[in-house]
Design brief:
CATH architecture: Up-down Bundle
Number of domains: 1
Largest sheet: none
Structural class: mainly alpha
Strand content: under 5%
Radius of gyration: 20 Å
Distance between the termini: 16 Å
Number of strands: 0
CATH topology: Growth Hormone, Chain: A
Number of helices: 18
Helix content: over 70%
Order of helices and strands: HHHHHHHHHHHHHHHHHH
Length: about 400
């Protein structure tokens, strides 16, 4: 995942193709989470299994990302082919789940395998995007890529919302699997590495330890961990928060979730990326963390704001909570040892997704004792600590440049 430093003008077509593959390929990520009410009714599953359906994907992603980095798969296999085969594998797992599984055990295994394959979709897409990125547009391009991830992850909610409650959960998963299969086809036919693509040096696991002993990389990683504590737990439990809010009565929850986490999130990523190219990553990340942290703090109050106010509030939160994802990728690549940017990004990503395996199950535990109106308050420490860590880079913001 080395960030390109070439000066070839960026081309819109290849980057658009990569983004489209991300949108379609990542539709399987939250496909099971999007049908939780239907699964509860048919399988009679409890909260632990519901949590497991999401956490298993996160842990599978970590395992896949670390294994891919250690085996240097993006360098041994042409990245567009790795992207295509990975999208195909994730779609295949989802297809099997939709057509042949009738109990939670096999479903959890298939969800974990889906996460393993997704580690060849998002990180490889990041590498391919960087290979087409021109000078001065790196954060913008990373923002577009994360926006595509955001939009794709929310697609199952759109499918379920448009089809209505009569659509079986298997139909939603079949739609997500079909999107993944189309992503694999498009990756094989349309996606190719750009002029900035070059094999990265073999990852050095020891650099992961050396990196966290250096002040600036450590601050970026800590800020990223605060961001990840909030992000995936927010995405996972937003439907439950809305469904349990009296003022949301009558709202099409699945369509609202798609608009909030998908559309608003993608817009937030695009805006943050453009701003980071102009003013640097640190102030943009701090601003996003402050806004999302404020939304955490206000979440118990906004349950009484009425349906329009609640939707507007969640849209702001959905935009801010993911806006800094691409910013952290670019920021770490700037402050890490240039020889081991791939190792640094793999370490940061692995730690972040491991942390989501803690934050996701914490939320329903709080909801069980304090109610869903207050449950999302448990996410507040993430953006607060993240903003504090990233703010420490502001006095030396010029030391975190946008490298050309």
């Amino acid at each position: 995942m080395r960030v390109a430093r070439h000066r070839t003008p960026a081309r819109t077509g290849p980057r658009a193709a990569i983004a489209l593959v991300q949108v379609l390929g990542l539709a399987v990520w939250f496909s099971a989470s999007a049908v939780v009410p239907r699964l509860r009714a048919e399988w009679g599953i409890g909260d632990a299994t519901v949590v497991g359906l999401t956490v298993s994907v996160q842990l599978g992603f970590v395992a896949g990302a670390v294994t891919s980095a250690l085996l240097t798969l993006p360098d041994r296999v042409r990245p567009h082919r790795l992207l295509a085969w990975s999208a195909l594998g994730a779609a295949g797992c989802t297809l099997v789940l939709a057509t042949a599984v009738d109990s939670p055990g096999p479903a959890l295994v298939l969800r974990a395998l889906t996460g393993v394959f997704l580690a060849g979709v998002y990180p490889v897409g990041m590498k391919l995007t960087a290979s087409w990125s021109g000078p001065g547009t790196r954060f913008r391009d990373l923002g577009v890529l994360v926006g595509a991830l955001t939009l794709g992850s929310a697609l199952p909610h759109l499918l379920g919302g448009l089809a209505g409650p009569g659509l079986p959960w298997r139909g939603v998963l079949l739609g997500a699997a079909a999107a993944g299969l189309l992503a694999a086809l498009l990756a094989a036919v349309l996606v190719r590495p750009g002029p900035g693509h070059a094999p990265a040096p073999r990852p050095d696991p020891r650099y992961a330890v050396r990196m966290v002993r250096e002040r600036r990389p450590l601050l970026v990683v800590c800020a990223y961990l605060g961001h990840m504590w909030e992000l995936y737990a927010f995405w996972t439990w937003l439907p439950a928060y809305l469904a349990a809010t009296p003022s949301a009565g009558g709202l099409p929850v699945e369509l609202v979730v798609f608009a909030v986490s998908g559309l608003a999130g993608a817009l937030g990523c695009a805006v943050a990326g453009r701003l980071a190219d102009r003013v640097g990553p640190a102030p943009v990340a701090v601003a996003a963390l402050v806004v999302s942290g404020s939304c955490c703090l206000l979440s118990p109050v906004m349950v009484g704001a009425g349906a329009p106010g609640l939707v507007a509030f969640c849209a702001v939160w959905g935009a801010a909570v993911v806006a800094d994802s691409g910013v952290f990728t670019g920021a770490l690549s700037d402050v890490a040892d240039r020889r081991y940017v791939g190792t640094a990004l793999t370490t940061q990503t692995a730690l972040g997704f491991l942390l989501t395996a803690v934050s996701i199950p914490v939320v329903p535990l709080v909801a069980g004792s304090a109610g869903w109106s207050a449950a999302l308050l448990v996410l507040l420490p993430g953006p607060v600590l993240g903003a504090m860590a990233m703010r420490s880079l502001l006095p030396s913001a010029t030391a975190v440049p946008v490298r050309a």
